[in-house]
């Protein structure tokens, strides 16, 4: 009887696609930062100028934003929502977000 496993081909295609996506992820980080930051502006307001319950991020130093985000991510800073949100990003992405948000006019 011939061994037949059609799923294997599909698996290979998926893995090769995944590696393409991963290799592009690092390159396009700079391009994706403004898009990632829209997540943050839903609560923190456009350009980080808060209109609601979330604190304003506008004009905060990049170093402070980065430090705070890394602390939320490591559960070293208490919060309602930020510990969860920060875990959805890599430290590199949080760093890029901090730099991006801090330089907004
Ligand atoms: C669902 C609403 C929401 C979203 C989305 C959100 N935040 Fe927050 N953020 C908060 C709240 C509320 C706090 C206050 C701490 C807490 O309760 O978690 C906060 C606190 C912070 C602080 C600390 C500010 C300070 O002065 O101490 C930073 C920095 C921050 N957020 C950055 C971000 C970034 C960057 C993103 C996007 C990746 C983001 N937040 C997405 C609601 C949000």
From TrEMBL:
Domain of life according to the entry: Bacteria
Keyword annotations of the record: Electron transport, Heme, Iron, Metal-binding, Signal, Transport
Cross-referenced InterPro entries: Cyt_c-like_dom, Cyt_c-like_dom_sf, Cytochrome_c_Oxidase_Subunit
Signal sequence extent: 1-25
Pfam families: Cytochrom_C (PF00034)
Domain Cytochrome c: 23-105
GO MF entry, a single one: electron transfer activity
PANTHER family per the UniProt record, alphabetical: CBB3-TYPE CYTOCHROME C OXIDASE SUBUNIT FIXP, CYTOCHROME C4
Protein name: Cytochrome subunit of sulfide dehydrogenase
Organism field: Candidatus Venteria ishoeyi
